[in-house]
Amino acid sequence: MIADIPLPSRHGPFEQGLWAALDRGELAHQHCAACDSWHFPPRWRCHCGGALEYRPVSGKAHLWSWTQVHPPVLPAFAPFAPYVVGIAELVEAPGLRMVGSLLIAADDPINRVQPAQLRIGMPLAAVVREIAPGLPWPAWQIIETEQPAGEAS
Ligand SMILES: [Zn+2]
Q1: Residues 77 and 114 grouped into a single domain
Q2: 112 CA distance to ligand 1 centroid (A)?
Q3: CA angle 83-122-71, nearest 5°?
Q4: Quick one: 53 and 16 in the same domain?
Q5: In this predicted model, what pLDDT tens digit does every residue of 65-90 receive, in sequence order?
Q6: How far is CA 35 from the centre of its chain?
Q7: What is the pLDDT of residues 92-143, one digit of tens each?
Q8: 15-to-5, 24, 36, 78 alpha-carbon distances in Å
Q9: 58 Cα: distance to centroid of ligand 1 (angstroms)
Q10: Which residues, including other chains, have CB under 8 Å from residue 8's CB and lie 6 or more apart?
Q11: Does residue 62 sit in the same domain as residue 45?
Q12: What is the whole-number distance in angstroms between the Cα of residue 93 and the centre of ligand 1?
């Protein structure tokens, strides 16, 4: 946990399914059966007009992009800078991307992963961690950190 971080609201009108899953240590996202599309962040209706229903997802993802964050940052994050933040694209929901910390071990601090360990497309798995009291949120654990054969490090 990081003290004094700004917290998202848990009381949005379309977010109950997201929070209920996170409270169980799982991920769920809105899905439209009419056009078979997934949505995040939570919204009222699909872009096709269809109703949205929360469905569980595995948390398996690929690294879509990442950046290294340097100061100035919010005061709560200053002790950790520089640190890497990734964008994870869920395997069963192509196009659904979530921003979060990248981890090697599930209990790592947010600044353990180094840019040299990352490559676009590498497999990730969601790890739901409590980022503040009563507030679970996914971080993304790297499944493997080896460089592809033939690539210089
Ligand atoms: Zn739709």
Answers
A1: yes
A2: 39
A3: 15
A4: yes
A5: 999 999 999 999 999 999 999 999 99
A6: 24
A7: 999 999 999 999 999 999 999 999 999 999 999 999 999 888 899 999 999 9
A8: 20, 15, 19, 30
A9: 21
A10: 135
A11: no
A12: 13
